[in-house]
Design a protein that fits this description.
The protein contains twelve helices and eleven strands. By secondary structure, it is α/β, with parallel strands linked by helices. Helix 1 crosses helix 2 (44-52) and helix 7 packs across helix 10 (223-229). The relative contact order is 0.15. This is F420-dependent oxidoreductase. InterPro entries: Bact_Lucif_Oxidored, Lucif-like_OxRdatse_MSMEG_4141, Luciferase-like_sf. It comes from Pseudonocardia parietis.
Length: 279
C-alpha cells in the first residue's frame, strides 16, 4: 500500500496546483496532495508534484473512468509509481450522470474498470475509489485500498467506516473557509457547494440518505447544510471540525481551502497547519 498519507492532506483543483505550491504544502507538514478536477490519465501533473517534493504523497481525486481509459492510466501509473515508490495513490471514480451521456451502467462500469486495472498490474494498495453509497463503499473495501468520499460531513464518515471495516483507507474531503463571520464564510463557501454539487444526483441522493431534505438542498443550500459541508471560523475551529472526521473513523482528511477571489492559499494553509499541530 502507498506509504502513510498522514492525518491531513490538501485537496486542490488541478488548475491551482504547481510544483512550488507542493513544496510549500510539504514544508507545512501536510502528508498528501489530492489532485481534483478529473486530472487527465497521463498523470503528468502528479509526476511534476512528486518530482518537486521528497516525502509528500500525491493522490488523484479523481481520475474519471468515463473520460480516461483504464489502459492509459495504468501505463501512467507504472511510470509515476515506479519513479516515486510508495508516494502515489491512484484515485478513480465514475463521476456523475449529468456529465456523461453514456452514464447507464455505473456500478458495472466501475467493476469492469477495476478488472482492467487488475489486468494491468495495478495493486489494490495503489488505488482508491470515490465512494458515497453502500454498494460502492463495499466495492472499495473489496477491490481497492479504500474510499475517498467527497462533499461529506463526519456523519457519513462514521457510516463509511462501518462499511469499510477497520483495515481500509478512509480519506474524506472537507471544504474550509477561514473567516469568523458566518455570513461572509457562507457567502464564500456556498458557491463551491451549490455549483455543481447540489445539482448532481449522486451527491444529493447521498445527502438525503444522511437526513437532509429537498428544502435544505434547494436555492443554494440551507445555512445548516452549508455549515455541515464547509468548515468555517478560526483556524482552531476549522481544525476541530476536520478532527471530527478522524474521531468518526477517517484515517486521513483532505482539506479544500476556499479563498476569496481564488487567492493563493499559502497563508491560509500555514494558519491551518498551525492549528492542526503539524506546522
Amino acid at each position: 500500500m502507498t506509504s502513510s498519507l498522514g492525518r491531513y492532506g490538501v485537496w486542490r483543483h488541478a488548475s491551482g496546483l504547481t510544483p512550488e505550491l507542493a513544496q510549500h504544502i510539504e514544508s507545512l507538514g501536510f502528508g498528501a496532495i489530492w489532485i481534483g478536477g478529473s486530472p487527465p490519465g497521463d498523470l503528468k501533473l502528479a509526476e511534476s508534484l512528486l518530482d518537486a517534493t521528497s516525502s509528500l504523497v500525491v493522490a488523484t481525486g479523481i481520475v474519471n473512468m468515463w473520460s480516461t481509459p483504464a489502459d492509459e492510466v495504468a501505463a501512467s501509473y507504472h511510470r509515476v509509481a515506479g519513479g516515486h515508490p510508495n508516494r502515489f495513490l491512484l484515485g478513480v471514480g465514475v463521476g456523475h450522470p449529468e456529465a456523461t451521456s453514456d452514464y447507464t451502467r455505473p456500478y458495472a462500469t466501475i467493476v469492469e474498470y477495476l478488472d482492467r486495472l487488475d489486468d494491468a498490474g495495478i495493486p489494490l494498495g495503489g488505488r482508491a475509489l470515490a465512494a458515497l453509497g453502500p454498494k460502492v463503499l463495499e466495492l472499495s473495501r473489496e477491490r481497492t485500498a479504500g474510499a475517498h468520499p467527497y462533499l461529506t460531513p463526519p456523519e457519513h464518515t462514521r457510516i463509511a467506516r462501518d462499511s469499510l471495516g477497520p483495515d481500509r483507507l478512509l480519506a474524506p474531503e472537507h471544504k474550509v473557509v477561514l473567516d469568523t463571520d458566518p455570513e461572509a464564510a457562507r457567502a464564500l463557501g456556498r458557491p463551491a457547494v451549490q455549483k455543481p454539487y447540489l445539482g448532481l444526483r449522486n451527491y444529493t441522493t447521498n445527502l438525503k440518505r444522511l437526513g437532509w431534505t429537498d428544502d435544505d438542498i434547494a436555492d443554494g443550500g440551507s445555512d445548516a447544510l452549508i455549515d455541515a459541508l464547509v468548515a468555517h471560523g478560526t483556524p482552531e475551529q476549522v481544525a476541530a471540525r476536520l478532527n471530527e472526521h478522524l474521531a468518526a473513523g477517517a484515517d486521513h482528511v483532505c482539506a479544500q481551502l476556499i479563498t476569496p477571489q481564488m487567492r493563493d492559499p499559502e497563508d491560509g494553509l500555514a494558519r491551518l497547519a498551525g492549528a492542526l499541530g503539524i506546522g
